[in-house]
Amino acid sequence: MSIGTFTIRALDPLKDAELLHRWVTDPKAAFWMMQDAKLQDVEREYMRIAAHEHHHAFLGMHDGEPAFLMESYDPRHVELVGLYEPEPGDVGMHFLVAPTDRPIHGFTKAVITAVMDELFADPRTRRVVVEPDVGNKAVHALNEAVGFVPVREIDKPEKRALLSFCTREDFLAARGVAV
Questions:
Q1: What pLDDT sits at residue 179?
Q2: Under a CB-based contact definition with an 8 Å cutoff, are residues 116 and 128 in contact?
Q3: Which of 48, 72, 52, 50 is nearest to 60 (CA)?
Q4: Which residues contact 34 (CB under 8 A, 6 or more apart)?
Q5: pTM of the full structure
Q6: How many CA atoms, within 13 angstroms, populate the side-chain half-sphere of residue 66?
Q7: Residue 50: enclosing H or E segment and its boundaries?
């Protein structure tokens, strides 16, 4: 059974702020750490990202409707500076699936797969790096399902995180594609 078609476009911090505000303040987005954010806080945060040379935000669409948020970043300059030794081709990633009243079985795994496809579509990307909260067991399972290998816990200013890596080969192997 097909879940549908995923596309990804650049996020418009002003046009998409209201939508993002609903998503990031939803109780299911607790690990996004913006539960108490005001609309202006969301606008400001995504304007900051839009202006940043090494951090990018995207809106993911499912069959033409907004369905998830994706961020990519260069861990040499953002998020993980001084917390691990980056390698050439490392790309950091965050994703958030929109809250819904009508969940689709397998949807979140399909979203993270679409995110990884997008990141690995760039031939310069050799490895995707994530740093989710150690308590976010659901995302750890999703990450492992698409090929991430946990490396170690790290202390970031805002959380204790599980540093994990996924090479192109690990991603393809997790999808059952011969490498």
A1: 66
A2: yes
A3: 72
A4: 24, 25, 41, 42, 45
A5: 0.93
A6: 18
A7: helix 39-51
